């Protein structure tokens, strides 16, 4: 998005999400930046039927999935940008592309595969054999079977990863019982600056 304005954010939602993928999301989660939290976005999401959820201010954990994604992208951009740090935007499209075609540890599939139901064709990929279908719905049926298989595999892979993560976490967890009214020490959240 060239600028963080309400009109640019609304245009991105309509043109780069809805028109590009032909799908209206049931809900979107954004922070409370003025480019998301405004009358224009409220009107568009209401008219289209999207439930717009605003994350809690100064609590990025509300939108943890995106915050983790942003952290991964930020790490890669910091490695690629020049010393003067003003050209990170030039590296954003190829960095996101690499993320989208790369296999993810938890799902064991790339986001591209999960979205399109096939491996991405890369410039250095082996040419794939052309499939010929006798009936017009053969491709659709094959796609549905493949997509169903991938969804089952991803669910299984995520469950396995969650169990492993829980096991690792539980190894160091102490089950402490607190009494009502007991004083506890709370660690404040540390806010770091952006790039």
Automatic annotation (TrEMBL):
GO biological process assignments: DNA integration
Gene3D superfamilies to which the protein is assigned, alphabetical: Ribonuclease H-like superfamily/Ribonuclease H
InterPro entries, per the entry: Integrase_cat-core (IPR001584), Retrovirus_Pol_polyprotein (IPR050951), RNaseH-like_sf (IPR012337), RNaseH_sf (IPR036397)
Matching PANTHER family: INTEGRASE CATALYTIC DOMAIN-CONTAINING PROTEIN, PROTEIN CBG26694
Name of the protein described by the UniProt record: Integrase catalytic domain-containing protein
One Gene Ontology MF term: nucleic acid binding
Domain of life, source organism: Eukaryota
Integrase catalytic domain boundaries: 1-119
């Amino acid at each position: 998005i060239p600028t963080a304005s309400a009109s640019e954010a609304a245009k991105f939602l309509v043109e780069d999400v809805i028109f590009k993928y032909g799908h209206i999301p049931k809900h979107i989660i954004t922070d409370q930046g003025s480019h998301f939290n405004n009358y224009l976005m409220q009107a568009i999401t209401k008219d289209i039927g999207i439930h717009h959820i605003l994350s809690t201010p100064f609590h990025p954990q509300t939108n943890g999935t995106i915050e983790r994604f942003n952290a991964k992208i930020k790490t890669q951009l910091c490695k690629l940008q020049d010393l003067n740090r003003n050209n990170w935007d030039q590296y954003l499209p190829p960095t996101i592309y690499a993320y989208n075609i790369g296999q993810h540890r938890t799902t064991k599939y790339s986001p591209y595969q999960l979205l399109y139901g096939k491996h991405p064709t890369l410039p250095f990929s082996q040419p794939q054999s052309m499939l010929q279908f006798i009936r017009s719905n053969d491709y659709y049926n094959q796609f549905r079977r493949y997509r169903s298989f991938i969804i089952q595999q991803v669910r299984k892979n995520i469950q396995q990863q969650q169990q492993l993560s829980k096991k690792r976490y539980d190894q160091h967890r102490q089950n402490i019982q607190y009494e009502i009214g007991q004083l506890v020490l709370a660690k404040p959240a540390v806010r770091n600056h952006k790039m």
